[in-house]
């Protein structure tokens, strides 16, 4: 998951839950019992727990509108914050390009060496 998406979701969940509440919320979600088995032990910090939960939710395809609807139902006064994060996930996935990549014209062999001045 791209950090542009991951960080706001982590921040949102940190602001909504303590560890016990997050575990209870996840247990009620589809696939929740399986997710709970993959989360770290209860002795980890809330940040570590939330980060692991977000990664698991994303890996298993659960960061979808039903998740945000359940959050909004559970925390109706936080609906604007939840909707803001949901909108980030509704947008196309950001693309990351490594800064050292350059376009090469393979029809022009000299372009392979551009920018490699000694």
Task: Provide structural commentary.
By secondary structure, the protein is mainly alpha-helical. It has one domain. Helices cover 56% and strands 0% of the residues. The chain has six helices and no strands. Helix 1 crosses helix 4, helix 1 packs antiparallel against helix 6 and helix 5 runs antiparallel to helix 6. The longest helix has 14 residues. 14% of the residues are buried. The mean pLDDT is 83.
Order of helices and strands: HHHHHH
Strand percentage, roughly?
under 5%
DSSP helix count? 6
The outline comes out as globular
* Mean pLDDT score: 83
Round the Cα radius of gyration to an integer and report it.
20 Å
Largest sheet: none
- The amount of helix comes to 55-70%
How many distinct beta strands?
A: 0
Distance between the termini: 38 Å
Number of domain units: 1
- Low-confidence region ranges: none
Secondary-structure class: mainly alpha
Draw up the topology in text.
Elements: H1 3-16, H2 19-27, H3 32-38, H4 46-59, H5 65-74, H6 79-90
Pick out its properties.
118 residues, mainly alpha
Short overview:
This protein is 56% helix and 0% strand.
